[in-house]
From TrEMBL:
Gene: tmk
Recorded GO MF terms: ATP binding; dTMP kinase activity
Protein name per UniProt: Thymidylate kinase
The Thymidylate kinase-like domain, residue ranges: 7-187
GO biological process: dTDP biosynthetic process; dTTP biosynthetic process; dUDP biosynthetic process
Species of the source: Actinokineospora globicatena
Lineage: Bacteria, Bacillati, Actinomycetota, Actinomycetes, Pseudonocardiales
Signal sequence extent: none
Length: 212
């Protein structure tokens, strides 16, 4: 059974870039690696509804914290069998976002902490009810909300991808970062490793830590 490792962080933190570097580094150490990203835009109807909600195209449902959280959770539940298959096939399964992102963003939207009712509810739905696998390790790529916004704006200009309502809300991103820090401190679901996303990372050393 492979190790499920999750990269979490703000929009624009550099998760996709880090995932690519970690994939290459794991392979260099002889590990087979499977990768996935959530939400599964273009692959899942539920994920596409999430995207509509983030851009204000779902009416009141997009404003509902719990409504959006259910859509995110259903997208992952739809990938459960694929995740379990990946874990049976690869040494490492590396995910760009997972259950903790739902917990962090929803709690931040509700102005709750990681000890609040929403985070507990996310676990009860995604882990307990939907039976999603628990990560072996979670990696928080920590950057300031200001730097994340700069990177998201650059990505918007380069990829012609319009930022969604949450990405454009800097106060929300600040609160999300605070909840992520709290989740990491309390080792929510599994051990967390916090790294500075504003500097170049020693990726080979990081892979050794994640495989230990």
């Amino acid at each position: 059974m492979g190790r499920l490792i999750v990269i979490e962080g703000l929009d624009g933190a550099g998760k996709r870039t880090l995932a690519d570097k970690l994939t290459a580094a794991f392979a260099e150490q002889g590990a087979t690696v499977g990768t996935r990203a959530f939400p599964r835009y273009g692959l899942s109807v539920t994920a596409d509804l999430v995207q509509d909600g983030l851009h204000g195209r779902l009416g009141g449902l997009g404003d509902s914290v719990y409504g959006m959280a259910v859509l995110y959770a259903l997208d992952r539940q739809g990938a459960r069998d694929d995740l379990l298959s990946d874990l049976a096939s690869f040494d490492v399964v590396l995910l760009d976002r997972f259950v903790a992102s739902n917990a962090a963003y929803g709690a931040a939207r509700l102005h709750e902490s990681a000890d609040g009712a929403f985070v507990s509810w996310v676990k009860s739905v995604e882990i307990d009810r939907f039976g999603l696998p628990v990560p072996h390790a979670q990696l928080l790529l920590r950057v300031s909300a200001e730097l994340a916004a700069e990177r998201a704006t650059h990505r918007e200009n380069v990829d012609s991808r319009v930022r969604d309502n949450w990405e454009s809300d800097t106060p929300l991103q600040v609160r999300v970062g605070q909840v992520y820090d709290e989740l990491a401190t309390k080792s929510w679901l599994s051990p967390w490793h916090v790294v500075d996303g504003s500097t170049d990372l020693d990726v080979l050393s990081l892979t050794g830590t994640l495989l230990a």
